[in-house]
C-alpha cells in the first residue's frame, strides 16, 4: 500500500499505507463498512465533521448537507469519512451554549488530530458551532473548509415577515402589554420557524456564517443560501471537490487566517450590522493562531465603515432577502471598491478576496445599500467603551441602539443575577423610570458560568405599558445577535472576579458617552475603594466536572473567553501508533 510522489507525504498514509499488523488493522476495520481496497491507494482522506443533532434544531439537517459534501469528495478522487461532533445549540442548551463552545473546540481539535485525515470540511449551523469548529481546526492546522447550514426561510405571520429571535422579544412585549394573546403567540411560533436552518435575522449564527466567509474559510456566497435551497447542497458539493484540491495545495488555515483576514472580517461585520458576539469569537479564534487582535481593533477598524445591510434586528429585511440581493459577495465587493478590505488576502478558493467578488452584483438598493448612500453612516458599528466601570472594555451595538440613549446619565438599579431581575420586572411598584440604568451582573464567563445571552433583559412591564420602548442596560454577559436595544455588553472584568460592576449600588449615577467611547460610575475613588475592601468573591458554584474546569481556566470577555491553555496552534503531527 505504498505510493509514489506527493502521496507518500499524505498524513493518512501513516495509517492506511502502513505495512504489517498495524496497516492490516486500520484497513480491515474500515472494510467492514463496504470500502474496497482501492480506497487505500493514497488518495486524500477527507474528514467531514458534522454537528448534526436533533438537540440543535439549527443543525438538524446537516446530515443531508454531508451527503452533498461526500459526492464532491468522491468526484475529486478523495475518500470522504463523516464523523460526528457535539452540537452547541443555543436554542435548547442550559445554562448557555457558550459554556460548551470551548469544549466543542477541544473535541473538534482532538478528533481531527487523532484520526487519519488529510483535510476536513466543517459543517456547522447554530452560532457557537461555527467558531468552535474554526477554533479546533485552527489549532490542528490541516487544510480545512467550512460549510454552514444556511438560514431558515423568512418567517411569515399575518402578512408580514417575522424574524427568529428578533420577533421573540417583540412578541414578548406585545404579550406583556396585552396586544397579543398566548394563543396567538403559539401560532406565531410555527410561522417564525418554518424550515430547517439557523436564525434568518442577522443574529450570531448568520453573523458567524458571514464571518467564516469574510475570513476566507468558506466558499464565496455560501453563507447566505437558505438551508432548504438546492444551491445550499450544490455549494456543499463544490466544497467537497475543493477540499481535495486544498490538500494537494497544502492550503492550511494558518495561511488564510492572518491579521489581514481578521481585519477584513471585522469591517465586514460592521457593514452587515453583525452581532456583538463576533467580537468574542473572532478574538478567541485569533488567539488559536497567535494573531495579535485586541478589543480596541474592533472599534478603530470600523469607524470609517458604514452599515450597508438593511436587515433585522437593525433594519427591515431577512437573510433570504440578503441572499437574493447578492449575498455577502456583493457587500465585500462594495468594501473592496471603497478600499476598506485587504483585497489581496488569500481564501479557501486559492484566489484572493478581490478575485472572489470581482463579478458580484448588488441586486436593487433596498437590502444592500452602497457606500454612496449607506443604510447607516460610517461609525455606526460596534463601539468599544472604556472607563472606571469597564477598565478592560465593554461593547455596544450602535446600529441596534436608540440614538437618544447613546449619551445618557441615570441612576443604577442593580440586580445580582438576571433571575433576580425577572422575579420583579412585572411588579407595578418597581422603583424605576425611563432614565434608570438597569445593571445585571454575575452573568460573565466565570460568574454564571458561560456568559449567557441575558443582557437585553425585557423592560419593566410598567414602563412598556407606559409606552417606553428602550432604556439603558449594562451587563457582564452577552446579548443574542437577534436582540436589540441600548445594551452595554461584555463588561470586563466581570463582577464575579471583582470587576467594578461588583461595586455598583442602587442609585449610583452611571454616565454613558458612546461618541466619547466612555462608560463610568460617577462615584469617587475613595468610596469605591471602601466598597472593594468589603467585597468578597462569590462561593464557587461548581467543585467538579466540566463546569469546574471551565471556571478555573476561562479567560475574560476581552480575550475571547477561551481557555488560556488552548491558545496557540498545537499542529497535526501524527500521534504514536499503539498497534
UniProtKB/TrEMBL annotation:
Gene3D superfamilies: IlvD/EDD C-terminal domain-like. Keywords: 2Fe-2S, Amino-acid biosynthesis, Branched-chain amino acid biosynthesis, Iron, Iron-sulfur, Lyase, Metal-binding. The keyword Iron applies. Its EC number is 4.2.1.-. It comes from the Bacteria. It is an enzyme of class 4 (lyase). Residues 43-356 form the Dihydroxy-acid/6-phosphogluconate dehydratase N-terminal domain. The keyword Magnesium does not apply. InterPro entries: Dihydro-acid_dehy_C, DiOHA_6PGluconate_deHydtase_CS, ILV_EDD_C, ILV_EDD_N, IlvD/EDD_N, Sugar_Degrad_Dehydratases. SUPFAM superfamilies: IlvD/EDD N-terminal domain-like, LeuD/IlvD-like. GO terms for molecular function: lyase activity. Belongs to the IlvD/Edd family. NCBIfam families: PRK06131.1, PRK13017.1. This is IlvD/Edd family dehydratase. It comes from Streptomyces pathocidini.
